[in-house]
């Protein structure tokens, strides 16, 4: 089974990525940044870590205020670098661990955390600044990641206590994963800083030292603090260090401090930290009971004939075709879909199989493959096909045969405007 080997704390300031990309290792003003991450990288290599569970916050790059979630778990197989306004960093994409990410997602929802899930998104400096420092002269770090994006930039945000509780659930989730993996929990962000308003440039190194000491020896004191307390002591943006409580909550009560360093050259106190977990091996009976608990809500659904639950695995495997059909909500995409499907589908990278499924209107085959009905519904509206006609195709019936099974033989669609009025006349 998977084991948590330890926890890492790391600042994620863009200063870090800038230092790496501009070759400042030998500059005395910048060298301490590299020295701290050298220790972290050495520990990761020495402990043969397979997976990093990576806790970070996006900086309004891939996650915007039109849909901003407290917790968004990545369930993808690759996470490429984002363009934050001045071009994409020249760093390798991170590889995602599909099985572990989907397992953790199932576990956290079972433990009543209202999770969001993401795929097809790039990651910004909140993720890449520390991760890119784990590579060496031989290339990027070779392990896999599971990213957790925490929404800490728009109030209200989850409390420190909620972060701690999520860490406790995360430990159970990881330890119940059946594959033998060596996992480290990485918490990013901080330390003290504020980057907006007249308080911009605020740093409190005394608080930073106290925070790291408490995180190791008395984390419950940090759990009981309020967001306002963190903002007062460490700056409004520095309050993001509450994410470190997820990491500490996922570790045992007893940890061994391997490394701790801070360096405050400019507007952020840059930190690196490593804890080794000293906890006992999990109880096998408890692990098996937790695995059963995780899947209890879906037991029996697999036996329903003609039913295809839309799981993370199906979603990830079919993200490309689902995304293509979802974009039919955009007028220009709809226009090209109708007028020049082959060119559009090729531009979007659809396989020959995916093209054939759409081109030949293979409705049931698409559902069986893992295409969501709710993008097929949009495709049907574009084509002038009513919802009941799609249902009839699913069942291998004519429209008349399907309507004969209804109390009222009506047709309808999600189309709007002239399109829906045209459909209603046919």
Structure overview:
The protein is of the alpha/beta class. The protein has two domains: 3-298, LigB-like (Protocatechuate 4,5-dioxygenase, Chain B), CATH 3.40.830.10; 318-425, Orthogonal Bundle (Protocatechuate 4,5-dioxygenase, Chain A). The chain is 43% helix and 13% strand. It has helices at 14-21, 31-46, 98-110, 125-132, 160-175, 205-217, 219-223, 227-234, 244-250, 284-294, 312-317, 319-326, 331-339, 341-347, 352-359, 363-369, 373-383, 387-395, 399-403, 417-425, and strands at 3-10, 51-56, 71-74, 78-79, 94-96, 116-118, 144-150, 182-188, 255-263, 270-277. Strands 1, 2, 3, 4, 5, 6, 7, 8, 9 and 10 form a ten-stranded mixed beta sheet that branches. Strand 9 and strand 10 (270-277) form a beta hairpin. Helix 5 packs across helix 9 and helix 13 (331-339) crosses helix 14. The model has no long low-confidence stretch (mean pLDDT 96).
Q: What is the structure about, briefly put?
A:
The chain has 426 residues and is α/β, with parallel strands linked by helices. Helices cover 43% and strands 13% of the residues. Strands 1, 2, 3, 4, 5, 6, 7, 8, 9 and 10 form a ten-stranded mixed β-sheet that branches.
């Amino acid at each position: 089974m998977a084991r948590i080997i330890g926890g890492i704390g790391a600042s994620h300031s863009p200063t870090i990525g800038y230092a790496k990309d501009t070759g400042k290792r030998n500059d005395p003003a910048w060298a301490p940044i590299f020295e701290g991450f050298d220790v972290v990288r050495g520990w990761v290599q020495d402990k043969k870590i397979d997976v990093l569970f990576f806790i970070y916050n996006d900086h309004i790059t891939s996650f915007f205020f039109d849909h901003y979630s407290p917790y968004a778990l990545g369930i993808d197989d690759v996470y490429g670098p984002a363009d934050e306004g001045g071009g994409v960093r020249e760093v390798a994409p991170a590889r995602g661990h599909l099985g572990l990410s989907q397992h953790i997602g199932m576990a956290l929802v079972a433990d009543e955390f209202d999770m969001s899930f993401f795929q097809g998104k790039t990651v910004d400096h909140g993720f890449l600044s520390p991760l890119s420092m784990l590579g060496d002269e031989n290339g990027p770090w070779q392990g896999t990641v599971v990213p957790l994006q925490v929404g800490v930039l728009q109030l209200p945000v989850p409390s420190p206590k909620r972060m701690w509780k999520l860490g406790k659930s995360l430990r159970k989730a990881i330890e119940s994963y059946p594959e033998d993996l060596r996992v480290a929990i990485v918490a990013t962000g901080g330390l003290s800083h504020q980057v907006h308003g007249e308080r911009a440039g605020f740093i409190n190194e005394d608080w930073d030292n106290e925070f790291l000491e408490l995180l190791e020896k008395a984390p419950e004191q940090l759990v009981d603090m309020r967001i306002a307390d963190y903002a007062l002591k460490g700056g409004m943006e520095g309050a993001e260090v509450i994410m470190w409580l997820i990491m500490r909550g996922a570790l045992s009560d007893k940890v061994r401090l391997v490394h701790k360093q801070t360096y405050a050259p400019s507007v952020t106190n840059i930190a690196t930290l490593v804890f080794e977990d000293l906890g006992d091996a999990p109880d096998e009976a408890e692990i098996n009971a937790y695995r059963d608990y995780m899947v209890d809500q879906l037991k029996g659904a697999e036996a329903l004939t003609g039913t295809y639950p839309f799981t993370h695995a199906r979603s990830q495997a079919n993200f490309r075709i689902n995304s293509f059909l979802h974009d039919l909500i955009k007028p220009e995409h709809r226009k090209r879909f109708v007028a020049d499907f082959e060119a559009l589908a090729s531009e979007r990278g659809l396989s020959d199989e995916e093209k054939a499924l759409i081109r030949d209107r293979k409705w049931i085959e698409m559902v069986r493959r893992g295409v969501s009905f709710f993008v097929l519904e949009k495709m049907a509206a574009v084509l002038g096909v009513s919802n009941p006609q799609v249902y009839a195709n699913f069942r291998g019936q004519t429209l008349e045969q399907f309507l004969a099974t209804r109390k009222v033989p009506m047709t309808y669609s999600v189309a709007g405007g002239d399109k829906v009025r045209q459909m209603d006349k046919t």
